[in-house]
Amino acid sequence: MQMIMKSLGRPVASWVRGFTLLELLVVIVIIGLISGLVLPRYFDTVGKSKAKVAKAQMTALERALEQYRLDVGAFPTNEQGLQALMVRPAGAQRWEGPYLKKAVPEDPWGNAYVYKVAPSMKDIELTSLGSDGRPGGEGDAKDVSLSDKD
Question: What segments bear the compositional bias annotation Basic and acidic residues (predicted)?
Answer without folding.
Answer: 135-150
